[in-house]
Amino acid sequence: MCATCRWQTRQGPLEFGHWHREVRQRLPRDVRAAHALRVLSAYVPTSGYIPDFLTPPVTGEGLDSSLDAVRATPRERVRGELARLVGSRTASAEVRGTTDPTGLSLGPLTDVMRRSFRTLLEPYWDHVRAAVSDDVSLRTRTLLEGGTGALLDGLRPFARWKPPYLEVDYPADRELRLEGRGLVLVPSYFCWRRPTALADPGLDPVLVYPVVKQQIEILRTGEERLDRLLGRTRTAVLLDVANRRARTTTEVADALRLALATASYQIGVLRGAGLIVSHRDGKHVEHSVTPLAHALLAGTGTAGRV
Known about the structure:
This protein has 306 residues and is mostly helical. Helix content is 52%, strand content 11%. It contains 14 helices and 8 strands.
């Protein structure tokens, strides 16, 4: 669904511009694909409410399994969610103009979803899967090195871990209580700038977030070299923390011969940019790098120094 949203906008020209142009060039030669995208886009607005049944739980079993899950959605739930879509302020004219959109047949809808997948995703699937896999690997590394707190705080800049709350940049003001349930983190190549979640709080909690690759492409605009991107002192601080996994502010200051106040300031800037996370270990506060920092270091040729 994130790809369908991105198709309808021109957001992220650096990340999605080439993809958008290629899809647009193919559509005049594929009338059925163009029709499928129009139909699906009507039920997937770029903002506001999107029916949850269109995004079934991720099983890792492929497209067919996901479409089977959509087709198996209870009719009562489909009617309720589509009625909510029709009543929302972001509902498309096509949906509002339908005589009875709540009577939508799920068979034809999943056919539309399959064709849209072939148009928007299939030609790029290897690339998308690789980016998602890299993100999972980076976040797994963060979890192993820094624990759950580091993993959650590593979602910066679009989310911040403020125990016991995860504060997320979200278009609407809402509070979701886990109440003992786990939170499933789902990296998405086509999620843009801020995470999204299921609308129904009764469903298993899921947070869909942009993969690290998108953030790294944003950071690499302009100058390529890391010292020009961040500044010499800030780069030295980032590399020092990355090379030693976890460092206190005093250790960074001593290693780089910086004033303690300077080291503290630079660490604060890097933390605000989502490149460093901090967590308390007894009497000390230790700093470690985030998945975004790992990707940045790899993308600028300094991966061997980490």
